[in-house]
Design brief:
Elements: E1 4-5, H1 10-13, H2 16-28, E2 32-38, E3 50-55, E4 61-66, H3 69-77, H4 79-90, H5 95-110, E5 124-125, E6 127-128, E7 135-136, H6 141-157
Parallel strand pairs: 1-4
Antiparallel strand pairs: 2-3, 2-5, 3-4, 6-7
Helix pairs in contact: 4-5
């Protein structure tokens, strides 16, 4: 199965309890969390979300993108720009060209305030070594999960603020 993307939108999750239940169900079904990327902390990127990458029981990677109402609306508006930027990146386009293509989206996402507590969500990635030598994480998964729950609670509350 090729790398796929399943977007988990907070409009459906409705807060920490349901998001926690979703993640617990995925864990129980054998989907291993392998990475978390907080794009809100990467203000030089054209798109914002918190992405959690999993490996399904068969070993295929997939991810959930957690959005606020604002970032989801912008994601939908700039979807074609995102796909174009991915395509030109895969074909070796320069950083300058990719930034030119995504400039309008970047400015729109830059105008959104970082949700409270979101700056505390650190990126982490599972590292597996050949021959089963073990795994380690960049940061504590427990503290990252706690910060992610705070972000989910905020995003589900509908209390979004725009910067001027």
């Amino acid at each position: 199965m090729p790398f796929g993307c399943i977007s988990g939108f907070l409009k459906l999750a409705r807060g920490r309890r349901n998001a926690g239940r979703i993640l617990a169900t995925l864990d129980h079904q054998g989907h291993a969390r392998t990475a978390l990327t907080n794009h809100f902390n990467k203000r030089n990127e054209a798109f914002c979300a918190v992405s959690v990458t999993f490996r399904n029981p068969a070993g295929a990677p997939w991810d959930i993108q957690f959005h606020t109402a604002e970032t989801f609306e912008l994601k939908e508006r700039y979807h074609d720009v995102y796909k174009r930027a991915q395509d030109i990146h895969l074909h070796g386009a320069s950083l300058e060209l990719r930034r030119e293509v995504t400039r309008e989206a970047w400015l729109a996402f830059l105008a959104i305030s970082i949700p409270p507590g979101c700056d505390e969500i650190d990126d982490w990635q599972e590292h597996s070594y050949a021959h089963g030598a073990g795994r380690w994480f960049h940061v504590s998964v427990a503290s990252t999960a706690s910060a992610l729950r705070g972000f989910l609670r905020y995003a589900a509350s509908g209390e979004f603020a725009r910067t001027a």
